[in-house]
Every structure is written in C-alpha cells, then in structure tokens.
Amino acid sequence: MFEKFQTKSRTLIDSNPYWDYIIEDYVLPNNRIGKYYYAHTLGSTIVIPKIDDEHFVLTIQYRYLNKNMSIEFPGGGLRGGLEPEENALEELIQETGYRTDKLELLGKFNPCNGLTDEICFVFLAENLIEGMQKLDESEEIKKIILNRKEISEKIKTGELWDGMTLASWSIYLHLF
After folding, report:
1. Rg of the chain over CA atoms, in angstroms?
2. 38 neighbors 117 (Cβ within 8 angstroms)
3. 60 phi/psi in degrees, rounded to 5
4. Measured distance CA(15)–CA(93) in Å, rounded
5. Is the pLDDT of residue 9 over 80?
6. 3-state SS, one letter per residue, for 98-159
7. What percent of the chain lies above the pLDDT cut of 90?
8. Are 147 and 58 in contact (CB under 8 A)?
9. 95 Cα distance to chain centroid
10. How far is residue 109's CA from residue 131's CA, in Å, rounded to a whole number?
11. pLDDT in the model for residue 160
C-alpha cells in the first residue's frame, strides 16, 4: 500500500542545543528526487500540573514568533542525557517552582509532523509542592491557576492557542 520513502542524502544546515535544521534528498513516489526541510529534535516534554480535580497550574509567557502572550502548560525541549521524566520534572520546577513525587506519562504526540520529527511526552503531575521558579535568562514566565471551566473558556475565546497545550489537554480529557 504505502511505501517508505528512501533517503538519498542528508545535510545539516544549522544546529543549536535544542534542534538541528536538516535538508534531505529523498525518492518521491514517481521516482524523482525531492527535498525535505525539517527540524530534528531530541523531543520535548509537557507537564499538566494538577492541584486537585478542578484546578491546574499553567504559565503565561510572551512568544516572540507570534508577538503575543501565550497561556501554556510548563514544558520544553529534551536536553541531551535526560530521560523524558527527568526533563519533565526540571521543566515543572523551572517554569512554575512546583515539585512533585507523582509523575505519570499520559501519552505522546508530534506537534507538527510536516515540519519536525519531534515527539512530545505528556505527563500529569500530582502531589504538588510549591517552591521558587528557576527561569532561564531568556524566560519571563508567570504561573497561573485555572479551573477546568476557565481553561475551556480561554480555549473558546482564543486566549489559549498554544498547540502543544491544546493537544496535551485533549489527551488529559480523554483519560479523565
């Protein structure tokens, strides 16, 4: 039925600690050679910090590319040498200050399968212990607590527009 495309060559255009920019030449179904441009990553994690059955910790931060404030669950790119669980715990502390002793993998997804090979691991954090944020120098993040109804309302109004948060919330709602 469907055949896997054969890669003929791979060229690294540029790289940073979170992703590589790649061009691949590959064989198209008509046997011509096509070019595919994408971002290769180690993956990412996102955490749904649950205070109780109705309340969740999210963040607000400015997103440069969209020139807009974004409401999101805490998360970030996998750093080399870390397992997804370790990365999720670090992102939770860094962006919200919360720690947890109860982290559960809910699922995973690709945030944009036409542009990246990234796999995002979605975790639920419970038994939260509040602490201080440990932001990177490039981050300015405010944590907020929203209930289910407020999350739903912010999705309806377009205030919550981050795709990774929307996908993670969808996974959560299908499980709980």
Report:
1. 18
2. yes
3. -125, 130
4. 27
5. yes
6. CECCEEEEEEEECCCCCCECCCEEEEEEECCECCCCCCCCCCCEEEEEEEHHHHHHHHHHCC
7. 91
8. no
9. 13
10. 29
11. 98
Burial 62-101 (b: 16+ CB within 10 A, else e): eeeeeeeebbbbbbbbbeeeeebeebbbbbbbbbbbbebe
Please tell me the distance from the alpha carbon of residue 161 to that of residue 62, in angstroms, as a whole number. 12
Return phi, psi of residue 73, to 5°: -80, 150
Q: 17: Cβ–Cβ under 8 A, 6 or more apart, which residues?
A: 77, 79, 80
Residues shown for the chain: 176
Q: What is the predicted pLDDT for the residue at 133?
A: 95
Mean pLDDT over 71-77 rounds to 97
Residue 1's pLDDT band (boundaries 50, 70, 90)? low
Element (H, E) at 44: strand 44-49
Which pLDDT does position 63 carry in this prediction?
95
Residue with tokens 């590319």: 65
Decide: helix, strand or coil at residue 34: strand
